[in-house]
Structures are given as C-alpha cells and as structure tokens.
C-alpha cells in the first residue's frame, strides 16, 4: 500500500504505518498543512521509501510487517540522520526508551489526536531548520566555543558531545535537552520550562516525554549527571561538583 499526496517544492513527510485507516487519516491531515506526504505499509518499504524520498521527517509505527519500526529507524538513521516520530500502540516506557535509543526523536502512544501529531511534527521540522541555520552561520562567522561543564563538552557548532574523551552519540532532541540543562548547571529546570525551551510546547501534558528523554540521556551519559527534583524537574550536576546526584533513577 502506497499513498502519496505530492506538492512539489514543499516539506516531505514519510509515513510508515500498516493500518490503512490510520495511515490515510495521517496522510490527509499532514497534507492539509501543505506538505508532500507518502505512506507505505511495511518495514522494508519504509526503508526503501526513505532512501528514495530523502524526507524531512518520518512518522513511523513500531509494529510493522517485514521488519519492525525499531529496525526501520536504525537503518534509516544509518543512511542519513532524519527526525523520526515513532507511534506505539503500547504505553510502555521500555519500548519508548528503546525507540529513543535507536535514533527516534519523539514518540506518541495510540490513540492520539491529529492536532498533537501535527504539532509534534512541526517541532521536529523547526529543530531541523534551526540546526541547519546554525551550521550555515558557523561557516561564515566565528562559532561559539564549546560549552565545558565538568567532564562534559558540548560543541554546538558541530553538535557533538564528549564525556571525558569519549564521544556520546545523541539524537537532535537529546542534544538540545542536554544543552539546555548544562547551560544552567545546578539549576532546577521545571518539566514545563524544558517542554517550552526544547520542544516548543506549552502543553504540560507532554511532561512524560521529558522524563523519557532524560532517562535516555542517563543511559548514554551515565546516571550521575542529571538530578531529579521530585514534583518539579531536573538539574544538571557536573561531575566535579562533589555532591552525589540523588535519585537518578
């Protein structure tokens, strides 16, 4: 099954979803934003379509025939980094963390509202545009020096992160979240502020997204760098702080 709504010269969205009714609804809603949208119904077709279309963003179901969405995401990201919004039928944080670990930038649990789907897709597109503009500016002017906090080095110009001498590979969303936290070390940032600064959201219903991305960061950087403040938010604690990061679970 392949469904395409083509508008040459516009943003291109690839939808990989095997349930025809859901796929059609997503295609029509995203096309209403003026975007070119193509939908395919299995994992192998999704990988092939991503290579052919070079989409600006991918909306990807986890449960697919052929190969599952996690493997599709791995293969797509190995060829070309692209923002991925994963759809899952289960409200299981383990699945969400695995999805973030293979390169997805965000996830939504079915059933979901089309309004929220559009909003999250726009956020991913804006983040890509900002990164592209920053890369262009870095070629014509002196880039900002890397941010060094404790043993973590964050290079905004190259979007690279080191812990000690080891490079840590982060998704674009994870990078932006880490940079936001590390720019205000030892300062507690609320989930609502993080949603606004990193995701451009003002809807507090997305706070679980913040929690899942923080857990993904801890898995990659170590559990000691980001402290949980129950009922409030998170604080970045440099490794040389000397104070144990409590409740880093």
Explain what this protein looks like in three dimensions:
The protein is α/β, with parallel strands linked by helices and 249 residues long. It contains 8 helices and 13 strands. It has helices spanning 20-31, 43-53, 69-79, 93-101, 114-140, 172-182, 191-199, 207-221, and strands at residues 2-5, 12-16, 36-40, 57-61, 84-88, 106-109, 147-149, 152-155, 160-163, 166-168, 189-190, 226-229, 233-236. The strands form 3 sheets. Strands 1-3-2-4-5-6 form a 6-stranded mixed beta sheet, with helices on both faces. A 4-stranded antiparallel beta sheet has the order 7-8-9-10, covered by helices on one side. Strands 11-13-12 form a 3-stranded antiparallel beta sheet. Helix 3 links the parallel strand 4 and strand 5 (84-88). Helix 4 crosses helix 8 and helix 6 crosses helix 8. The longest helix has 27 residues, at 114-140. The protein starts with a strand and ends in a 13-residue tail after the last strand. Mean pLDDT is 85; it is low at 241-249. GO terms for molecular function: DNA binding. Residues 144-238 bind DNA. The modification 4-aspartylphosphate is found at residue 61. Residues 12-125 form the Response regulatory domain. It comes from Cellulomonas iranensis.
Topology of this protein?
Elements: E1 2-5, E2 12-16, H1 20-31, E3 36-40, H2 43-53, E4 57-61, H3 69-79, E5 84-88, H4 93-101, E6 106-109, H5 114-140, E7 147-149, E8 152-155, E9 160-163, E10 166-168, H6 172-182, E11 189-190, H7 191-199, H8 207-221, E12 226-229, E13 233-236
Helix pairs in contact: 2-3, 4-8, 6-7, 6-8
């Amino acid at each position: 099954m392949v469904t395409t709504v083509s508008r040459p010269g516009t943003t291109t969205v690839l939808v990989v979803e095997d349930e025809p009714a859901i796929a059609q609804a997503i295609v029509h809603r995203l096309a209403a934003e003026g975007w070119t949208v193509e939908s395919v119904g299995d994992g192998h077709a999704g990988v092939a379509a991503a290579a052919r279309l070079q989409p600006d963003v991918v909306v990807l179901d986890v449960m697919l025939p052929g190969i599952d969405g996690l493997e599709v995401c791995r293969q797509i990201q190995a060829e070309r980094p692209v923002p991925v919004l994963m759809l899952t039928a289960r409200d299981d944080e383990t699945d969400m963390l695995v999805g973030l670990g293979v390169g997805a930038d965000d996830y939504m649990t079915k059933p979901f509202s089309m309004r929220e789907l559009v909003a999250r897709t726009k956020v991913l597109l804006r983040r890509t545009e900002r990164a592209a503009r920053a890369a262009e500016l870095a070629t014509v002017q002196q880039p900002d020096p890397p941010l060094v906090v404790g043993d973590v080095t964050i290079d905004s110009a190259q979007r690279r992160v080191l812990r000690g001498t080891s490079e840590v590979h982060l998704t674009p969303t994870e990078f932006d979240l880490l940079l936001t936290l590390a720019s205000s070390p030892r300062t507690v940032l609320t989930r609502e502020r993080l949603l606004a600064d990193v995701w451009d959201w003002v809807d507090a219903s997305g706070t679980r997204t913040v929690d899942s991305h923080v857990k993904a960061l801890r898995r990659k950087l170590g559990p000691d760098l980001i402290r949980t403040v129950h009922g409030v938010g998170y604080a970045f604690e440099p490794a040389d702080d000397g104070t144990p990061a409590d409740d880093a679970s």
